[in-house]
Amino acid sequence: MSTPTRAAHEEMPPIPATATAILRLASNERVGVDEIVDTISTDAAILSEVLRVANLAFVGVRGEVTSLKQAALFLGFKRVAGIAAAVALRSSLGSLWSAQEVRRCWLHNLATALTAEQMALVLRLSPDEVYSAGLVHDIGRFVLIIKHRNEYVRLLRERPAEEKDFRLRERERFKIDHTAAGRDLLLSLGLPPVLAQVAAGHHDTPRRGASDTIALTHVACRAATAMGCGTIHVDQDQLPENPFTDLVDLLPADHREPLLRNAESLKNVVTTLVGAYERAFS
Ligand SMILES: [Fe+2]
Ligand SMILES: [Fe+2]
Q1: How confident is the prediction along the chain (282 residues), in pLDDT tens digits per residue?
Q2: Partner of 101 for a Cys bridge, out of 156, 174, 203, 213, CB 3.0 to 4.6 A?
Q3: Is the whole model's pTM more than 0.85, yes or no?
């Protein structure tokens, strides 16, 4: 893993309290539905908005969602947490959320979480930790959006050809890139160290023997991008038919065939859900 540029914690702007509380819960494997319902219910505006988004995203699939408990039972509390964190971030970002590039940054986190979750299910691994890792892997972008606002949005619009060039520009302009900013935030929140590791190294090719969470999140991030899900600039004609073709060699040998075989259905699940989220958050 490369070492991202360090930054002083004290320079980091706080992510809003409700969003951090929700992210904490989403990252805790032992949390119960009641705790997440209690946390979201403390903020009436967020509560009603989560229900609105859940209904917009899933109406016709599961019927009407009228309570958080019901949403958590239908969708799983991790997915509810992903919606709730987006709603909490949106309320703190104000007019910045109207920038498509900002919304797509969060959609990419959701898409990576869903892709990692679906990969884990195909591979008969636990989906919880990889979902959390996907949800926060690019949280550093939001640290920089909240701190630098339109200056960071302008950078998002510049379309650097390669991700490493983008991180270079982040370091040039803001003295830190989003991987280090995300790592610093997650460490300061006391979340499981593996999540900070994922945030810090999600663009690095996983080493042989890397944990499932690190390897799956890296591949999920790239596969979500290859599906055109939540990426800032999408050229549909350039997307590969099978998002895993160029990626499975990064995973252990016994993971490759099941992912390639299930790619089509996995892609359908992820693109359908992300499309629904995108409509609901527009
Ligand atoms: Fe990233
Ligand atoms: Fe990513």
Answers
A1: 444 444 444 455 567 777 788 888 777 766 677 887 888 887 788 888 888 888 887 665 556 788 888 888 777 878 888 888 888 888 878 889 899 999 999 899 999 999 999 999 999 999 988 998 999 999 999 999 999 999 999 999 987 778 889 999 999 999 999 999 999 999 998 888 999 999 999 999 999 889 999 999 999 999 999 998 867 666 777 788 889 998 999 999 999 999 999 999 999 999 988 888 888 887
A2: 156
A3: yes
User: Which of these, 211, 33, 29, 209, lies nearest to 129 by C-alpha position?
Assistant: 29
Residue 250 Cα to ligand 1 midpoint, Å, equals 18
| Side chain identity at residue 191, one-letter code | L
Given a contact cutoff of 8 angstroms between Cβ atoms, the answer to whether 71 and 53 are in contact is no
d(CA 230, CA 115): 12
50 is in which domain, residue-wise?
Answer: 9-281
- Ligand 2 centroid – CA 219 distance (Å): 9
- Provide the domain count of the chain: 1
Residue 52 lies in a domain: yes
Task: Give a yes or no: residue 44 inside a domain.
Answer: yes
Does some domain include residue 3?
no
Q: Residues 217, 204: contact at Cβ < 8 Å? A: no
